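Notes from hallway chat w/ T.B., transcribed later so I don't forget. T.B. wanted the structure written out for a chain they're using in a teaching module, and asked if we could keep both sequence and structure tokens in one place. Agreed to drop them here.
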Amino acid sequence: MKNFILILLTFLISAAVAEAQVRYLEPVFDEVTVQREEYGSNISIITGQPMETPLLMDVYQPVGDTETERPVIIVPHTGSFLPPIFNGTTSGDLGDSTLVEVCTRLAQRGYVAVGMTYRLGWQPEAADPNVRKGSLLQAVYRSVQDSRTCVRNLRRTVDEENNPFGIDQDRIGMFGIGSGGYVSFAAGCLDDYSEVLLDKFLDSQTNLPLIDTTILGNFDATEAGALCIPNHVGYDSDFDIAVNIGGALGDMSWIDGRENEPAYCGFHCLRDPFAPWFRGIVIVPTTRENVVEVSGTREAVQMANDRGNNTVLEGIPAAIDPIQPIVDVLSGIPVDYNGFQTTLATNNMYTFITPDLQGSPWDWWDLNVIRAKVAAINMQFGTNFDADLIHQNGLLTNADMSAQKARTYLDTVFAYATPRIYTALELSVNNDEIAETDVELKFGPNPATAFVNIEANEKIEKLQVFDARGLLVKSQEINQHQFRLPLLDLQRNQIYFVRMEFGSGYLIKQLSLH
């Protein structure tokens, strides 16, 4: 299937690969600042003894920005709802490489990015599957409460603290990574108690709900429960767009299409071994045990499209949406997934097709950092975690892990997500496509082997090369009329798309390499 898909992509993808060089779509700031703040507090059960704990966020802001009302994107981290190392993986807190990269990229584009942590803790090793399932559902529920608390806190700072972070409280989105994707998707639509009374969310022996709001509090954490302290009551918890990379949704029925629900955008690996791509059982990395059936990104986004959540995303200009032609192709390719007949993609959802089992190719880590973290944890808690074993386990589903690989995947994520964030938050766009004759473009040889010469009567400000999958493989500032683009580092017998930016606009050339 992989070869068939690549052949289709090669011959069918339009040359409309483009991306606007404007604020919120591309980086316009070189540096960002980060400051850690508390956004609330609530009852945690992570130590086994319930106790009040602070809820923390890292606020990323662009250096040198003069805007005082900027859209804000909240970024919940991954980690299987357990602390890093204890969860059997290298990630799970505000220091995760992927979270830092995502928040930095957002801030460089002019957003205020908020990396948020949330209350962790459940019982993945419990022998009783009801305890495993119930404690995980409760952990997800607490994370939803915390993410909504974070939204309310940001609005509170505008009213009560003279807007210290310079945000626009009417333009808020959420961008969840891995387990954080479960958080962002659920936080957007879980708002009715009947939604947690589905059969799969009941104790299989007692038939009682595994979520009890008298203990856990209401969905927003604005009403007290035995394990819930109200936070920032009176402020709105809603936000405008939920982005998910590698997570899932508890059930597709949660998406109702109500006016207060966000738009949905998502990314998922077809061969993710832990979170289902369409629909299936969640398997946590900690124990590799089955937990509960959920709706994967593909099914959840389809529901958001069908129920009107994503109407706001219709009509995004091709000029700022370089990946949509690829999604159009994938959306026409049928696939059988766990007995479900569907297609490889749908609007607002991008599928990564990997050659082997991979769940989060956008993740990477430093083994020396992991060794230091493990040593500190073992000393503090008397545990005997093995850093090298955790590292090797991570490589089982991310064998060629590296910062370069991860950032390449994130290039595609950002190329597809940012136009949707931009549109859902009702930001403006000014982007002009120009003709080759407008700049007297000379581009050749094409097909090419080792290089292609590019010349124009207007300075080429920037050049980007996308491959047939939509991955950005080259990006370079040019600022001259003539440029020789080297090609020896690209794959032979492939189609690429070269996007050139000029002061007057942009244009795209399809390049054949042999």
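Follow-up for T.B.: The chain has a mean pLDDT of 90. Might be a good example for the class.
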